[in-house]
Every structure is written in C-alpha cells, then in structure tokens.
Write a structure and sequence with these properties.
The complex is a heterodimer of chains A (323) and B (248). In chain A, β2 and β3 form a beta hairpin. In chain A, 27% of the residues lie in helices and 27% in strands. Chain B has a single domain, classed as 3-Layer(aba) Sandwich (Rossmann fold). In chain B, α2 crosses α5 and α3 crosses α4. Classes of the chains: A alpha/beta (323), B alpha/beta (248). The structure holds flavin-adenine dinucleotide and adenosine monophosphate.
Chain lengths: 323, 248
C-alpha cells in the first residue's frame, strides 16, 4: 500500500495535494499496490469523493480529541501509526511547510531518510527518484531504499490528473499520542494588512535589482500604470536596504507566475531565476547585452532602466492605458 | 541564554551551474563559498537574542576543514564560539542531524537555530531530526521570532497572514530569510574572527538510505532574447509587447 498525506481547507483539497496524489498513484501503480490517503482536521471525510477520483481506495481520517488544531509532531506520529497499521511501502506528502514538517517528524521516528522535492519516481527493488536541488536549478537522480520510503513532492511541478473512481471508503483512525506530541500546536492565525496586488498573484511583475542603484521611483511609477501589477526585487536590492524582503523574488524569496516579468537592472543569477520559473514571458532591461538575464529573456531593451522605465510610463499614458 | 546555530558551506553559483565530469558534484574550481541566506538570518537572530538576554552563540558546521571559513564569517557577525564537525564525505540529512544532535547533547542549549532548508541539497529535515533526537519541541519555516520569559513566539507565513506558535525553551527553530536584516561585519570583526579558535570534532560514520546517482542541469531556454532596441526609444516596442500580451 502507498499512503498519501492530503491537505485540505474544510473539505476542499489543496492543489499541491492533488499533485501529490497524482504522483502517489503513479508509484502505487508501478508497485502493484493500492493507494490510500490520510487527512486531518474538520470535514476531512468531505474529501472522499475528490480523492476517490484520484484513485484513492481508502481515506484514513484522523480523529483524536486533542487534535483540534495543527500539531506537527502529533501529525507525524499519527502518520507513522497509520502507516504501520495499514502496512505501507511508501508515504508521500506535499512539499508544503506543513507537509515537509509532518513527514520529517515521521521520517525521524521511523529512522529513515526522507527524500524532499521529488518530481518523479521509478519503482524497482528501490525507488530511483528525481528531485530538485538549489530550488530547482539542479536536478538530482537518487536511490531511496528503506523499508518505508518517505518523500515529499515539489510543488507546481506535476500536473494533477484524475484517474476517475468512486468516492474513497472513509476509515476513522485514532492515533495514540504522547503528551510531548502536543507541545507544539498552532496557537493562532493572524491576518496581515498588506495592501496592493500580492506578488504571487500579479499578472505583471516589475523587478528591480542592483542596477537601480537604489532609486525605485521610476519602476514604482511604471507599476502604477499597469493593472494587476506588483513590484519585486532581487536579493541584492534587499541586502542594500532598498526594498523589504517581502519583495524579494528567488530561491529564498517569493515565487512568481505572471504573464510577463519585467526585470530591470537584474543580472539573472540562478537563485533569482528559480523564483520566476513560473513567468510566461520575460522582458529584460539591462545596460549589459552580455548579462545572463538577456539569454533567459524573450525580449530585451539594452539601455539604462532610469531612462527606459519613464519612457514606458509616458508611452502607456499617451496610448491612454494609464488612469 | 545559550544559542546554537547550524550553518552549511555551499558554493556561490552564478548564472549557470557547471558539473564535475562524474556528475556527482558542482564544479567549484572557479567559485567562492558562502552559507545560505536562511542560515545568515539564524546567526543574526542568535546574536541579537544574546545581545538582549545575555549568553553565548555557538556556530556549528559539519563539513570539510575548509568550512572553517564559514564559521569565521559567522563569528565576525557576532557568534562567540565555533565548532567544526569534520567530515570529508558528503553526508545525507539523517547522518548530518545525528552528528549535530550528538554534538549538541554535550551542552545545554536553550535555543537551536537552523535554516528551513539547506541551499544546495534542500532536504528540509535536519532541524526536525535534531529536535526529535534531543526530545525538544520544534517549529519550522519561521520568519518572526520573539523570546520572553522562556517562551518562544514564532510566526510562519501563510497566504494572507501568518500562523503563530508558542513553545517553551529549550526548543529548535528553523528559519527563513526575511526574519531579520543580517549585519555586515566590520573589518575589525573580520580580522578578529580570523584569530578565533574553533573546536574540532569527528563524528562517527553514518549509512544513509538516500544515495546520489547523478546530477543534471535542467535544460533552459538559452536562445537569446529579441533585442527591442538599445536606447529608451525601444520603450514603444516594450509597450507593444504588453499590448500584445493583453495585460493592459
Ligand atoms: C543560497 C543563495 C540564495 C539566494 N537567493 C536569492 C533570491 O532569492 N533572490 C535573488 O534575487 N538572489 C538570490 N541570491 C543572490 C544571487 O546569487 C545574486 O547575487 C543576486 O540575484 C544579484 O542581484 P542583482 O541581479 O540585482 O545584482 P547584480 O548581479 O549586481 O546585477 C545588476 C545588473 O544590473 C545591470 N545594470 C547596472 N546598471 C544598470 C542600469 N542603469 N540600467 C539597467 N541595468 C543596469 C548590470 O548590467 C547587472 O546585470 C542567492 C544567493 C545564494 C548563494
Ligand atoms: N553540513 C551541515 N552542517 C551544519 N548544518 C547543517 C548541515 N546541513 C544542514 N544543516 C542545517 O540544517 C538546515 C536544514 O538542512 P536540510 O535538511 O539539508 O535542508 C540547514 O539550513 C542548516 O541549518
């Protein structure tokens, strides 16, 4: 049996979990095993139909009086006990904060190594898998060989696909928890008050780097003239103190997926580029025709961004786009 | 308060990653080395907490002798002591965590700070495993941290807000860049760090269940961009592009 951890919001399954189910089904099929799922929280039984359509035969819903909120170690314990009870050859979780954290606890309790950010698995005697390193700029082929193979799935790399199937059978599962398992539990959720278009959702992102020399005013102007646009930056600009870290795009910052990314005064280091893998198109504005970003972009303007950006704003205005 | 921070020496890759011939490593012959931005924030946080509450920051790395360079960078940022767990072979996350936990169990640390994931191998688990081995509570992916009266209040970003966790010390916390603004060490601090003594230890060998077979640099579209122009006049063409994409 292959066990997939599924995250959901009151019965609505997260996209990353649908991707996880798609990979888990592939692993189960290759291994000639059945696919089961484990889910926590209120209304977990409400996802039986969705996961069934992805090939899940049995949905294990975790039911415990003390587990009203997310608790990473307790979740890890429950996953291990469920896997042991059902006899599992692999446990597969989404590579989200919670998924990775829960599975790390499980891996540690089972004393096996977890393979993170996996995009593909070939099942033989061992699992030969493909996973991402350096935020996706490097691919690793590796062999995982444990009694139970634990892996997390890299988000946004696998396209989720249904196999068709009836609703999964729901089986309530009550783990035995130690006191220590509940030492860490979600205390509360706070809403943030950021205004404007979130970077991750913007249709147009204008990014500025060290080439701005600290003056972002022209790029800010340009963003204001484009609907659904947001301003981003490179790590160099954040390090200089020109932009807050919330604006940073890249391996240790935001991942963006706009229709077009306008990168101004940014050289195109790999750690920056992994943050904009999701961009449909890239327009580079750079004084250096040899800059790596020019190789990676679809279009380039080889000139000073402090002149190009205002000229673009003016042109948008004269064509009546800016309000 | 006694703080431990764990950092990992990694190459500073530029615009393109080049592999060694056997495809088992990055060709670092022309590269410098650094440690992850997440871990820089871990060091900075430790230093700030000790400035506020008193105590010591110990910085630890597992790696080759050369990794002493990264320990010294962290000491220049304000860490007090350095520990090198010397190991020539590449270790996986389980072996790394075991070595770190063994080393940490000799001392009484109140707070152990890790990066959320290492920059190069991104295994997402060393911090959690150390916590499990030491029997400590653990929170991961933290971007905001407060310590008052022996309690850690830690925030993790989610879309539209943050999750808040409160745990008692001693605890393990893994952090992300954005937690704070790491300082640039002064010339003097760098000079002094060069002279700081670093403790050496050799962890026992470990048999890892995840074996590297081969690395691969993903295909990228390296066809050069269409150059719209070499002066601000090209702004018109740039706006044409936006119109064609119907984003206006
Ligand atoms: C582990 C790790 C993680 C990292 N994570 C990230 C990350 O998340 N995000 C990130 O961005 N970086 C990250 N980095 C840093 C990354 O390697 C680069 O150092 C950084 O992206 C460089 O920023 P930049 O392109 O703004 O600066 P530079 O590399 O200095 O490039 C500046 C560019 O501006 C151009 N320019 C100069 N003047 C002008 C002008 N007037 N008009 C137009 N163009 C001009 C120059 O030709 C040059 O191409 C990370 C590094 C490491 C080691
Ligand atoms: N070789 C190492 N030496 C010291 N700390 C490490 C090492 N490898 C990983 N770590 C720490 O564990 C964190 C998570 O690593 P990983 O589980 O590999 O993603 C890193 O950000 C470091 O803080």
């Amino acid at each position: 049996m292959v066990l997939a951890l599924v995250e959901h919001d009151n019965g609505e399954v997260d996209d990353t979990s649908l991707e996880t189910l798609t990979l888990a089904r592939d692993v189960a099929e290759q291994a000639g095993e059945s696919l089961e799922a484990i889910a926590f929280g209120p209304e977990a039984d409400g996802i039986a139909e969705t996961v069934g359509a992805y090939g899940v035969a049995v949905l294990n819903t975790v039911d415990h009086a003390d587990l009203d909120d997310y608790a990473p170690e307790a979740y890890g314990r429950a996953v291990v006990q469920c896997a042991e009870e059902t006899g599992t050859e692999a446990i597969i979780a989404p590579g989200t904060d919670r998924g990775a954290e829960t599975l790390s606890h499980a891996a540690s309790k089972l004393d096996v190594t977890m393979a993170a950010e996996v995009t593909d698995v070939e099942v033989g005697d061992d699992y030969e898998l493909t996973r991402q390193r350096w935020g996706g700029t490097l691919i690793e082929h590796a062999r995982l060989s444990a009694d139970t193979n634990l892996l997390t799935v890299a988000p946004n790399e696998i396209s989720a696909s249904e196999s068709g199937g009836d609703a999964a059978d729901v089986s309530a599962f009550t783990p035995e928890l130690d006191d220590g398992d509940l030492r860490v539990q979600l205390t509360r959720v706070e809403e943030s008050d950021i205004e404007g278009v979130p970077l991750a959702e913007a249709r147009v992102v204008v990014g500025g780097g060290r080439g701005t020399d600290g003056d972002f005013s022209e790029l800010e102007d340009l963003v204001e003239k484009i609907p659904n646009a947001a301003l981003g930056s490179s790590r160099a600009a954040v390090n200089e103190g020109w932009r807050p870290h919330d604006d940073q795009i890249g391996q240790t910052g935001n991942k963006i997926a706009p229709e077009i990314y306008i990168a101004a005064g940014i050289s195109g280091a790999v750690q920056h580029m992994v943050g904009c893998k999701g961009a449909e198109n890239i327009l580079a504005i750079n004084t250096d025709p040899e800059a790596a970003i020019v190789q990676k972009a679809d279009w380039a303007v080889v000139a000073d961004l402090h002149e190009v950006a205002p000229a673009m704003s003016e042109e948008l205005e004269s064509r009546g786009h800016a309000d | 308060m006694e703080v431990l921070t764990a950092i990992k020496r990694v190459p500073e890759t530029g615009a393109k990653i080049v592999l060694t011939e056997d495809k088992l490593d990055i060709d670092t012959s022309s590269l410098g080395f650094t440690f992850s931005p997440h871990e820089e924030c871990a060091v900075e946080e430790g230093v700030q907490l000790v400035e506020e509450h008193g105590g010591n920051v110990t910085v630890l790395t597992l790696g080759e002798e050369d990794a002493t360079e990264q320990l010294r960078s962290a000491i220049a940022m304000g860490a007090d002591d350095g520990i090198l767990l010397e190991s020539d072979e590449d270790r996986g996350p389980a072996g790394t965590a075991k070595a770190i936990a063994d080393a940490a169990s000799d001392a009484d640390f109140d707070l152990l700070l890790f990066g959320n994931e290492s920059a190069d191998t991104a295994n997402h688990q060393v911090g959690v495993r150390v916590a499990e081995q030491l029997g400590l509570p653990c929170v991961t992916g933290i971007k905001d941290l407060d310590v008052t009266d022996g309690t850690v209040t830690a925030r993790r970003e989610i879309p539209g807000g943050s999750e808040v966790y409160e745990v008692d010390l001693p605890a393990v916390v893994t952090v992300k860049e954005g937690l704070n603004e790491p300082r640039y060490p002064s010339m003097r601090a760098k000079m002094q760090a060069r002279k700081a003594s670093v403790e050496h230890d050799e962890p026992a060998a470990y048999d890892e269940g995840l074996e590297l077979l081969e690395l691969e640099v993903p295909e990228s579209d390296d066809s050069p961009a269409e150059v719209l122009g070499e002066s601000p006049d090209a702004a018109d063409d740039a706006v044409d592009v936006l119109e064609d994409l119907e984003v206006l």
